[in-house]
């Protein structure tokens, strides 16, 4: 790992001051991606701004129908949360299958979303649940947030502080994990709620997480796994790599979509 | 360089270290606690698992300077004097190790696993143990006896 300078600001304004005008500074959450990337010399930030000690950055609060999850809340805490299990059990289930237990005890929801890894689990949940990403500057709808592999609407000195998720009437996530990395080769999150039927797919798209209009239309008409059979799922725009071809991934999208719907 | 102080196995320690120092290097190189092993350095093998504030973490993917004031337990801190922890006894009784390289991480992960399931009132089955060991790799292929060891210790902890 190249040398870096570590900072642990106690407030958002201190964190912003550390990031301002420093192109080489990066925000550190649980570090489960960033530190591993730094060890491989694929990232070399001059400064790390650890946002976990900022007041209000961790924890889960609820209203009758919505969850607000602090950006520095770990996957383990989301998975174990009684509130998340009650209002959005699919989200707790998704969090319980990210990486492994030691990764879940450190990795954070804000970090996962800000990184927008094309095979990460949380972006699919955010998109399908029509979540709102709250930053120190504004609120961003998930539809406007994920802009492509490792690319988001976040500005350089913008910090995710929380995500807001509305409870869905029905929701589930089905993942076909790459067995070594445990990242999704294909993950499909299906949700039916106030925002209608939404289906988001991770692990498969060349441009990262995306919604599937064909699946959404079919499941709006008939929420059943057999409805998924009739949907055309194109391999265009899907990833091909050593783990699987675009065609293989297209088939996995159908299989995972059926499993997810069957689980609701 | 940053001065970092933490409690490791019940003892307060302070060292000046470069900010990029990983907890695994801090433990092994600065404190000479070489029971914590580094197998892969890519956060996949789990040989480096220790407890930080009561939770299992991969010490090769944690910055030492981020742990000011933290409580850290390593494999060296698990036994009570000469009396081994029930998980250590179970690994011995059930031949839960072959070469032993992965064992410190296996045991630290397992202690956390059993404690977590007990706290949540969930029953730990052998299938669940195998799932929970997702982040710990044994290249002697000794998982069967590791699972047996954890089941054994789980009944005694």
Strand content of chain A: 15-25%
Question: Percent range for helical residues of chain A?
Answer: 25-40%
Q: Which runs of chain A of at least 5 residues are low in confidence (pLDDT < 50)? A: none
**Could you please say which CATH topology of the domain at 170-262 in chain A applies here?**
Enolase-like, domain 1
Largest sheet of chain B: 5 strands, mixed
With strands numbered from the N-terminus, the spatial order across the biggest sheet of chain A is 4-5-10-6-7
The mean pLDDT of chain B is 96
Q: What's the CATH H-level homologous superfamily of the domain at 170-262 in chain A?
A: CO dehydrogenase flavoprotein, C-terminal domain
The CATH architecture classification of the largest domain in chain B is Roll
Uncertain stretches of 5 or more adjacent residues of chain B:
none
Give the CATH topology of the largest domain in chain B: Ubiquitin-like (UB roll)
Distance between the termini of chain B: 41 Å
- For the secondary structure, the number of strands of chain A is 14
**Beta-strand percentage range of chain B:** 15-25%
- What class, by secondary structure content of chain B? alpha+beta
Number of domains in the coordinates of chain B?
Answer: 2
H/E order of the elements of chain A?
A: EHEHEEEHHHHHHEEHEEEEEEEHHH
CATH C-level class of the domain at 170-262 in chain A: Alpha Beta
Count the DSSP helices of chain B: 5
Throw out a few tags for this protein.
heterodimer; A: 264 residues; Uridine Diphospho-n-acetylenolpyruvylglucosamine Reductase, domain 2; four-stranded antiparallel beta sheet; 12 helices; 25% strand; B: 157 residues; alpha+beta; DNA polymerase, domain 1; 2 domains; five-stranded mixed beta sheet
Question: Can you describe what's shown?
Answer:
The complex is a heterodimer of chains A (264) and B (157). With 264 residues, chain A is of the alpha+beta class. Among the domains of chain A are: 1-53, Uridine Diphospho-n-acetylenolpyruvylglucosamine Reductase, domain 2; 170-262, CO dehydrogenase flavoprotein, C-terminal domain (Enolase-like, domain 1). Chain A has 12 helices and 14 strands. The longest helix of chain A is centred in the C-terminal third of the chain and has 17 residues, at 246-262. Chain A is globular and about 55 Å long. By secondary structure, chain B is an alpha+beta fold. Chain B folds into 2 domains: 2-77, Beta-grasp domain (Ubiquitin-like (UB roll)); 86-156, Orthogonal Bundle (DNA polymerase, domain 1), CATH 1.10.150.120. Chain B is 35% helix and 16% strand. Chain B has 5 helices and 5 strands; from the N terminus they run ββαβββαααα. In chain B, strand 3 (49-52) and strand 4 form a beta hairpin. The N and C termini of chain B lie far apart (41 Å). The mean pLDDT of chain B is 96. The chains are: A alpha+beta (264), B alpha+beta (157). At the A-B interface, helix 2 and helix 6 of A face strand 4 and helix 3 of B.
């Amino acid at each position: 790992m190249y040398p870096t300078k570590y900072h642990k600001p106690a407030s958002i304004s201190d964190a912003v001051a550390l990031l301002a005008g420093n192109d080489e500074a990066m925000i550190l959450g649980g570090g489960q991606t960033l530190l591993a990337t730094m060890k491989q010399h694929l990232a070399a930030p001059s400064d790390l701004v650890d946002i976990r000690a900022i007041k209000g950055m961790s924890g889960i609060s609820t209203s009758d129908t919505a969850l607000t999850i602090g950006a520095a809340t770990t996957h383990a805490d989301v998975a174990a949360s009684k509130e998340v299990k009650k209002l959005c059990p699919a989200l707790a289930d998704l969090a319980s299958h990210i990486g492994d237990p030691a990764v879940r005890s450190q990795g954070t929801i804000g970090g996962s979303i800000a990184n927008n890894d094309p095979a990460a689990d949380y972006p699919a949940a955010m998109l399908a649940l029509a979540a709102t990403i709250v930053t120190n500057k504004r609120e961003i709808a998930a539809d406007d947030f994920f802009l492509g592999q490792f690319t988001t609407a976040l500005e350089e000195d913008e910090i995710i502080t929380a995500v807001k998720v509305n409870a869905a009437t029905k929701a589930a996530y089905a993942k076909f994990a790459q067995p070594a990395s445990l990242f999704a080769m294909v993950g499909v999150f299906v949700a039916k709620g106030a925002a209608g039927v939404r289906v988001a797919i991770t692990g498969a798209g060349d441009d990262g997480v995306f919604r599937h209009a064909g699946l959404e239309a079919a499941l709006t008409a008939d929420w059943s796994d057999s409805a998924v059979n009739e949907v055309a799922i194109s391999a265009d725009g899907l990833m091909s790599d050593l783990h699987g071809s675009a065609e293989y991934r297209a088939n996995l999208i159908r299989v995972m979509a059926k499993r997810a719907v069957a689980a609701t | 360089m940053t001065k970092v102080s933490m409690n490791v196995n019940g003892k307060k320690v302070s060292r000046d270290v470069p900010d990029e120092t990983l907890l695994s290097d801090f433990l092994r190189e600065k404190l000479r606690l070489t029971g914590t092993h580094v197998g892969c350095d890519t956060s996949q093998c789990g040989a480096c698992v220790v407890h930080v504030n009561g939770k299992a973490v991969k010490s090769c993917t944690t910055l030492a300077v981020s742990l000011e004031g933290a409580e850290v337990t390593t494999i060296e801190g698990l036994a009570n004097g000469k009396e081994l922890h029930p998980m250590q006894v179970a690994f011995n009784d059930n031949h839960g190790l072959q070469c032993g390289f992965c064992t410190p991480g296996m045991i630290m992960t397992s202690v956390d696993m059993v404690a977590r399931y007990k706290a949540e009132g969930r029953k730990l089955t052998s299938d669940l143990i195998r799932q929970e060991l997702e982040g710990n790799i044994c290249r002697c292929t000794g998982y069967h006896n590791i699972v047996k060891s954890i089941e054994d210790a789980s009944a005694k902890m």
